[in-house]
Amino acid sequence: MNWLFAVLVTTVAVCGANICPCERAELCEQIRQQRDFEVFLFDVGSKTWEFYDWSMVTTVATFGKYDAELLCFAHSKGARVVLKGDVPLSYIVDQENRTAWITEKVNLAKSQFMDGINIDIEQAVDQGSPEFHALTDLVRETTEAFHREIPGSQVSFDVAWSPNCIDKRCYDYVAIAESCDLLFVMSYDEQSQITGDCIAMANAPVAQTLNGYDQYLSLKIDPKKLVMGVPWYGYDYPCLNLSQEGICSIDKVPFRGAPCSDAAGKQKTYKWIMTQVNSSLSGRLWDSEQKAPYFNYKDQSGQIHQVWYDDPQSICLKTNYVKSNGLRGVGMWNANILDYSGETVAKQQTEMMWNALFGC
Ligand SMILES: *[C@@H]1O[C@H](CO)[C@@H](O)[C@H](O)[C@H]1NC(C)=O
Ligand SMILES: *[C@@H]1O[C@H](CO)[C@@H](O)[C@H](O)[C@H]1NC(C)=O
Ligand SMILES: *[C@@H]1O[C@H](CO)[C@@H](O)[C@H](O)[C@H]1NC(C)=O
């Protein structure tokens, strides 16, 4: 056969059937097994996944670029790898557009040997609006399509820390919970809408966080549909003024109807926080009301900052609730942001963060 023909044949073969990227073909088989307890993590890219505690992981939502090596490795550990799904809701009010979106995602998941999808739509929605109904339909139809086309696959949906129209996300939480396999509750960014004094506060205060779960459960949502998501990051706020009592007033940055917001701060990784706390002005402080650690530091220009974050002590107070209330599992945003360098102190801190997912 001539050269051109050979090229054509190869192209057809590559496009027609999806080539398994794994060393062993069985690693391309989708994970079907259901496990009682979910450890659901988000991976945002890079190779830190090599250092995760794979004895715990059940699902990896890949928010970075597709990484075939990660897929093969996760499958070798019996862990699911799921797509990210996001779309402007105004587009999918139209049934044809909605079906096209779902079909595209199912085909993408299949072609990459993936095990489901995590739908991450954080848009503001008015109760009863066309988008409100379209979103519920999207979740139900996506779940039906994935379950039909990829048996045993998992469809999850990300929700705010409370069902009470947080950030104007007034969704039909009950119907959405019934329509998918699980809700990942994002118990963080809880200062996105500050209505009282504009001051730095904890990213995810313990009582407020647990109250959010009480609210979901009071809607009669099955606890086995709820995965508790904890933050592995914190917020660094430049203080306009740091009072004698240690209260840091922050810039007024409005968000979705509230006069100020955590948008006045910058998100910082646990890795950064752990190095910064040791050279801070205050060292690690503990707020006994919000049950969260924080510290103050001065930057090179002399500006004072207050940093609020979560560590094993604050996280385990929240994850204790998972067992006592029979939730489906735990997870975090995001798995990449610990210090995986393997250096002695870092290694210990990283291990303690993974272990805190199981309470104290
Ligand atoms: C369908 O989706 C496309 C984007 O994929 C968008 O531009 C278009 O406006 C949508 N059509 C309708 C009727 O919503
Ligand atoms: C700033 O903090 C100082 C010291 O606690 C306090 O006396 C002062 O009233 C504060 N200023 C503002 C604008 O809040
Ligand atoms: C920070 O300080 C703590 C307590 O003194 C110490 O155990 C730890 O090794 C220090 N961390 C780093 C990264 O130096």
Automatic annotation (TrEMBL):
Keywords of the record: Glycoprotein, Glycosidase, Hydrolase, Lysosome, Signal
Pfam family, one: Glyco_hydro_18
Annotated localization: Lysosome
Major localisation: other
InterPro entries xref list: Chitinase_II/V-like_cat (IPR011583), DIAC_cat (IPR047898), GH18_Domain-Containing (IPR051887), Glyco_hydro18_cat (IPR001223), Glyco_hydro_18_chit_AS (IPR001579)
Family stated for the protein in its record: Belongs to the glycosyl hydrolase 18 family.
Annotated protein name in UniProt: Di-N-acetylchitobiase
